What does this fold into?
Amino acid sequence: MINLQPTVSTQQRIAFLREHEAQDISHSGRDLLTHLQGTHDILQRWQLPESLCLAGLFHSVYGTDGFTKQPVALHKRKQVQQLIGDEAEHLVYLFCCIRRITLFDGKGAAGVRFRAGYQTYEISQDEFSALLHLEYANTLEQCGELGFLGRFVKNKVGSRWLELKHLLSQACNTELAQVFKNAGKVQLQFLIFEPVFWLIRKLKA
It folds into this structure.
C-alpha cells in the first residue's frame, strides 16, 4: 500500500490535474478542474477527513457512469496514490467504477453494483458513507449550473436523504436540510419518476 506523502502540496496535485488537461475538459457548463476543486471545497466545508476531501479533488478522473471522459488512465493509479494516498485513491476508484444510482436503492453497501469491466470490491459501511458524501458534494457542486437537469438529478439524490442521513456528517446534514427542505415532496417526485430510473439502471447493466 502506498501512503500519502506529507511533502505533496496542493499545488502539485493541481499541477497533475492540469497536466492531464482537466482545465480544458468541459463539465457541467464549466471545466472539470473547477468542478473537482469545488467538490473538494464542499467536503472540506463539511469538516470531513482529509482523505475524503482529497478523494473529492480527484473523484471523477478515471471517468464515471455519468462522465465518460477519462483524463487519467487506470494504469496511472499508483501515481494518483502517491499524490493523495491509497485510502483517498481507493475511494476515487470506487466512485468511478460503481453504478452510482445503486447508492440510493435502499440496500446499503451490499446493494452497490459495479460497472461492467471493472474490478469489484466488497464495500464496507465506512466506504459506503464516504461514497454518499462524495455523491452529495458532487451533485451540489454542479447542479446549480445544469438547469432543469440539475434539479432532476438533485431530486434523485434528495429522495433518499431522510433514509440515509444517519450515515452523513452533521455539517453535511445541516446543509442538505436546506437543499432538501421539501424532502417529502421530493420523495413523491422520485416515486413518480422511478420507472425512468429503473430503465436507466437496465440500460447501464
About this structure: The first strand starts at residue 26 and ends at 27. The chain has a mean pLDDT of 84. The beta strands are 26-27, 30-31, 98-99, 113-114.
